[in-house]
Amino acid sequence: MVKKFIQKLYIALLFLFLYAPIAVLIVLSFNKSKSRAKWGGFTLNWYKELFANEQIMNALYTTLVLALVSALIATIIGTAASIAMNSMKRTPRTILMGITNIPMLNADIVTGISLMLIFVAIHYTLGFTSVLIAHITFNIPYVILSVMPKLKQTNKNTYEAALDLGASHFYAFRKVILPDIFPGIMSGFLLAFTMSLDDFVITHFTKGPGINTLSTKIYTEVRKGIKPEMYALSTLLFLSVLTLLILINRAPKEETAKKNKKQRIHNESKRNYSFLKPVIAVVAISALIIGSLVGMNSTSGGDTLNVYNWGEYIDPDVITMFEQETGIKVVYDEFEMNEEMFPKVETGAVKYDVVCPSDYMVQRMIDADLLSELNYDNIPNIKYIGKDYLQSAESFDPGNKYFVPYCWGTVGILYNKTMVDEPIDSWGAIFDEKYKNNILMINSVRDALGIALKYLGYSLNSTNKEELKEATQLLIDQKPLVQSYVVDQVRDSMIGNNAAIGIIYSGEAIYTQRENSDLVYVVPKEGSNIWIDGWVIPKNSEHKENAEKFINFLCRPDIALLNFEYITYSTPNTAAKEMIEDDDIRNSKVAFPDSSIISNCETFQYLGDEMTAYYDEKWREVMSQ
Description:
single chain; alpha/beta; MetI-like fold; D-Maltodextrin-Binding Protein, domain 2; 3 domains; three-stranded parallel beta sheet; globular
């Protein structure tokens, strides 16, 4: 009795761990609030918006087409390779099998970077076809792995007997070998399809502008948080797979005799028309491949603009308006970190026309001679950008030759006024033992070390190794007080009252305060980081005038206002600020802090490769303790 109870409990816990996250995801797809920590009521709105979201639907289409086509081609090549290797002698077959297994044993990041470097070396422009080639490459070994065991089980004597009886090699293969190895071929196809469907790393390194799969799309949404539409899509995919599994495993209801009779009739019909199946399959697959390649590459010609921006960092309607007003087709791509964007621009693997880096990264790009000087005759709307922001930008872009400010903000403390003893105005609060296990620390090298440096009275751009060692030790001593190290997760945790204090960007603070009125944002009196993101044009841009038109369009007050309302990060456009109808937002010290608040703030500077490596070393030291 006890044993049966334990068995049932084990199975129940197993199913709980497997399906509880999926259940949570399904519930969130019906949550009216965008926050994962707050229930805003039941809604079907996210399902409606899912099918209206062009970016997500394109990502879904690309994911499915890529998986299907790459799996099909890999299956054909892998099967042919398996047959060839199976006919070899033992030694060369063993060597080739070893070489074949290397991609499966390799880390995906090694394969991804290697393929990207090959494309760059042969000057092949990254796009849909480069991702397709990459997926075929890493899928082939999985097909071989599935087909080879079946080939070893086949009886070669039967095949040779068919040849002796006058059958052609192809006919003998189709009638003798193929039926035996077909389960292995299907297994290899399904395995390749699944691997391609689930891949992120290799796709990330080999894709071009405008190409997104579901995995890369979700990754680029990390900065602003995953859209509820993604929960709706995941729910629909889960229910589709579940329904398919139920139908496949459904027990037949027909009696055995009737079933056998129907089967005989079916087999007779099948023999009569079986020759049509390969023809139909080839035509359908060819149409799919050609249609996909044509559709994916349709934006390669004509009047286009390749944009590279942070995830969820522009109102999608703004892109549509720009296309309608100018007739220029925007091919939009997203990144999640400056350090991810830089190598793509540096290698020239993708020729972006306009990019949106942060302050210190602009300086690094200028030093690397990657940027083209702006022609301000084509950007008359620069007059709407506040002079203070242009002056601040001169700290990393002397003379404002390369950079036009787009968004800005600060890094500060978000605290719950019901969970702290008194108002917070200093970084000292995050080092105070009374808030142990109630502190959410930012998981960022420069931000975390910058906070410690400012608290100690140093510059957040310090290159003094003794000061950095002192800051590192302060962060190590803080670790027992920290609940967790996070970036975007701080929003939901603070909204849900799961922590008293969190480090957050000012734009995110505005959103959290809308969801939880007990939250207060402050820039500590010791000072902090004030950052500016903006637009630059790489030297290898092929549509520089289009890029300047785009920058000019974004500087237009009504467009800047739309973007501010969508992303909630502060706008440097003074005319757009005056157009904000909500007085509380227009006069907000969070969105638009005055000089007294930001007087001690600094902009990050690029410190060179050596100091960047030293900062990384110190941060690893903190996280490893």
